[in-house]
Amino acid sequence: MNIEIKKSIKPVKYLDALKILEERVDKIINNEAKELIWILEHPSTFTGGSSYNETEILDKSVNVIKTSRGGKVTWHGPGQLICYLVINLNKRNKDIRKFINIIEESIIESLKNFGLETFSDRRNIGIWIKHKNEEMKIAALGIKVKKWITYHGFSININNSISNYKKIIPCGIKDKPVTTLKSICNQKYNKLPEELIKNLIINLKT
Predict the structure, then answer these.
(1) What is the mean pLDDT of residues 38-54?
(2) CA diameter of the chain
């Protein structure tokens, strides 16, 4: 499969990453570049998707970058894994729902290798984990599609602070908290990017 794998060691500013994604989309449309799976981290940044509302900003000092991805407001920052996917759905039956399922299944399968049972929820998009009888969000998902080329992707909270989530209503969900992998199970997650890449490539072939 002709997919470029990119891993950024240093944090990448959100708008810089978005420019790279948009350029890659245009190149794929013109058959000038490979598809892309990109693992990275952002500096502390609040972003608002296409359906976010100003009322979801609880701390009015927060600066939100309006972005083209689907979804509402969320936070990105140190300790959080970002995975961006620029994938050509023209080669995959133009099936957006299946593509979202592939992302969800890849995250769930990857976290299972760390002994964690997670699940998706049709009513509340993302990946969830049950901890102390409470459903908590562990991963957020938001994509955009241009001429059947996807971009944006998902984030997984590993060992980031969740204090910034208290400044917003994350993903517009008031009654379910956000958590991190480290707070659920304190183990090493340094091999998680490789697991995600492996599972994404396998599932994208199906």
Answers:
(1) 91
(2) 50
